[in-house]
Specification:
By secondary structure, this protein is α/β, with parallel strands linked by helices. The protein has helices at residues 21-32, 62-65, 91-106, 120-127, 134-142, 170-173, 176-192, 218-232, 249-252, 263-273, 309-322; strands at 10-13, 38-42, 53-56, 70-74, 112-115, 148-152, 157-160, 199-203, 236-241, 257-260, 279-283, 289-292. A twelve-stranded mixed beta sheet has the order 3-4-2-1-5-12-11-6-7-10-8-9, sandwiched between helices. Keywords: Cobalt, Cytoplasm, Magnesium, Metal-binding, NAD, NADP, Oxidoreductase, Pyridoxine biosynthesis, Zinc.
């Protein structure tokens, strides 16, 4: 281990301690200990009782440690974990773990970064966290002007063109420049992943893709002209399409990724198809970052019923993309 020459361990940031992150990290180690190497950046006291752990002082030690227990780059988060109850004392340490994970990947000491879910309100309350979410914070740390959030499972890849903003603000934020950047970043990323001529389907914003202007003009004024120009460059793009007919099995067979206009238009279909196995991939960072496609799940934290499938899929995808 690791399973391919030259591959390094994956850094896993702790995420919100009061959520299911500590539980699924322990479960992921049990499932993957013979397959790949990763290490947790977090407080080992937050892990479920009885979790085999190996405290490491450097990422490189994770490779040998995996066979004995979950490797932990131990950081004191300042207070015990109470499942389901966020503690503001933890918030600065949650942010610091993400920052450290990025630094380790950027300096080549970790092959990729996988992030456990955060609770944005808890970080805002406890650490004055100024970002709408993980994706925007990672773009800030990477020093890139724009990144793309892709959700992926075996059945579907989706990219929302706008992310963590109120639905009422989507039309104002849906600009030609922003949509073009999203499509170009996605096209390049899929090409880098082994799809040299990806098929891209683009949803409309309005019902029935605006129905010729009867239900909105964003398709006519913003989306369609851009897609025409990109098709003229040689990109394989379909749209703007009615979102309510884009996600059945027959439609999905016709494209490699769907570009959607807002958060729920993208996330509802993928979470319906594969709630447990979806993975969040950030495109355009300059390094590999994945995360589970679910939240902190305060309502089930500490009950021993959390499903680690999405984190396991995220770690596997991080390995594959980094490799």
């Amino acid at each position: 281990m690791p399973d391919r020459p030259g591959a390094g361990p994956i850094a896993l940031s702790a995420g919100e301690p009061a959520g299911i992150g500590p539980e699924i990290a322990a479960q992921a180690w049990a499932a993957l200990k013979g397959e790949l190497a990763f290490f947790l950046i977090g407080d080992p006291s937050h892990l479920p009782g009885g979790t085999p752990t190996v405290l490491i002082d450097r990422p490189e030690a994770a490779v040998a440690a995996m066979a004995q227990g979950l490797p932990v780059l131990a950081r004191d988060f300042g207070a015990p974990r109470v499942p389901g109850v966020a503690n503001p004392v933890h918030a600065p340490h949650v942010v610091a773990a993400i920052r450290e994970g990025v630094e380790l990947v950027q300096t080549g000491r970790a092959a990729a970064l996988t992030t456990n879910p955060i609770h944005k309100k808890a970080l805002k309350d406890g650490a004055d966290f100024a970002f709408p979410g993980h994706t925007e914070f990672l773009a800030h740390l990477a020093g890139v002007p724009e990144v793309v959030m892709m959700l992926a499972c075996d059945a579907l890849r989706v990219v929302p063109a706008t992310i963590h903003i109120p639905l009422s603000e989507v039309p104002r934020h849906l600009t030609r420049a922003g949509l073009e950047a999203t499509i170009r970043i996605t096209h390049k990323a899929l090409s880098d992943m082994g799809l040299p001529d990806p098929r891209i389907a683009v949803a409309g914003l309005n019902p029935h893709a605006g129905e010729g202007g009867a239900m909105g003009r964003e398709e006519i004024e913003v989306i369609a002209p851009l897609l025409d120009d990109l098709r003229a460059e040689g990109m394989r793009i379909a749209g703007p399409l009615a979102a309510d007919t884009m996600f059945h099995a027959g439609a999905r067979a016709g494209y490699d990724v769907a570009i959607c206009m807002y958060h729920d238009q993208a996330l509802i279909p993928i979470k319906t198809l594969d709630f447990a196995g979806g993975v969040n991939v950030t495109l355009g960072l300059g390094f590999t970052r994945t995360s589970p496609d679910h939240g902190t799940a305060f309502d089930i934290a500490g009950q021993g019923i959390a499903d680690p499938a999405s984190l396991i899929a995220a770690l596997r995808m991080a390995r594959d993309l980094a490799g």
